[in-house]
Amino acid sequence: MEEEFFFESNEDAQRSVERYEEMLRNQDQYFFDAGAFEYIVDFYIEKNDPVKALQVVDFAISQHPYATVFLIKQAHLFILTNNNEQAFIALQKAELLEPSEPDIYLLRGNIFQNTERFSEALENYDKALGLAESTDEILLQMAYVYQSIGDYESAITYIKLSLEQNMENQDGLYELAFCYDVLDKQEESIKFYQQYIDTDPYSYAAWYNLGNSFHKLNLFEKAIDAYDYAILIKEDFSSAYFNKGNALVQLDKYDEAIEVYKQTFEYEQPNADTYCAMGECYEKLEKMDEARSYYKKSVKMDPKMADAWFGIGVTLNHEERYFESLHFYKKAIDLEAENADFWFAMADAHYKLGQIEESIAAYDKVLEYNPL
After folding, report:
1. Would the pLDDT of 233 be above 50?
2. DSSP state, 132?
3. Nearest partner of 281 among 246, 307, 316, 306, judged by Cα
4. Which of 47, 100, 273, 357 counts the highest number of beta carbons within 10 A?
5. What is d(CA 324, CA 318) in angstroms, rounded to the nearest whole number?
């Protein structure tokens, strides 16, 4: 028996999924309006079940063959399942029905971008740009393409255009910082974020990126002030705490840095990088037991953390336990064989043990990786 189901309310939205699954169990045929089908498809997408979502789309197309929305959803799902050929076919059908739909060109651009056909990606994004009412995400996608081809100046232009459309786009703010960093244009970055903050003083991402730009110019006090504003706006911003800690280290304020690093643990799980940074602070304070403890926590979480293995060796060296330190220097070198600092410490330990030949060999490595 065929039943009809029309989508009219939020309650109906929830019931539409139940009715669809009931239909499958009963091996029956129900009619759903387009709104109900859209909700059911989105439900399965959110559950990360693209196979079921595609089954719903196929059924929706059979009942609503001239509804472009389902061909576009079908193409989107084909892209998610790495079936670009079928996605192109679905988009071609959609274009025949509604050539002015911007999502057709946006998705086609996504496929070209993912397959590194960048000029075709830009061509389709440009078509979408001319048709869409909201363009900030399209402009950002175009910026990503320019990044991929190494044209960071053009990427900056498109990111700024995107931010003009949507100042709250956090991705755009971070991508802009990345582009300025690649081009080593920290002064321009600072100027932009200061102007941005004048317009939106409560943007924690803008304050954070401003802090990072100050940090890269060794303006650590200004960086700390910017991180503090970011934290004031977003109290649980663990990355801002971590970078503030790094800036304090540069100012030799190791005790303060340790306390700031500890604050990150209130908002995220401890990680190897933070443990290693804390170990370095204790090392600088010549509290070797505490330093070694945090270095050990770091390598326990990430055995490939070369700096932490090296740090353990440094603490042992400080205690004149030179033979033991060699073991940890070697572990660090196994991970970063071209690190001249690691080889220098290895050479020094061998020398202090009276192992002159080994020391000379290690010093040769220092000169190889860090020539005078």
Report:
1. yes
2. -
3. 246
4. 273
5. 11
